[in-house]
Specification:
Layout lengths: L12 H11 L6 H23 L1 E2 L10 E2 L3 H8 L1 H5 L2
Antiparallel strand pairs: 1-2
Amino acid sequence: MVGSVEYPPLPSNEVLCMKRFLKSPYSWLAPPSLIVLFVITIVPTLFLFFTSLHHWELGYPWDARRFIGVQNFLYVVKNPLFFGGA
């Protein structure tokens, strides 16, 4: 065809959203906020799981703990007050 103009393909919605996000004046806040969210939520959860597998009382030093595996969980499940408490 004579006189026809071919236009480049339009970008997808994902590309448009990413460009809009990167142009935002607050886009630099996303990485630090994700790091803070990780430190506040994931790290304490991992520490809690780690300490639940050890026999450790709060007043004792960190070196006094000993690994007992899932015995803490078995103790709770075998306790009749655990299921009868509701």
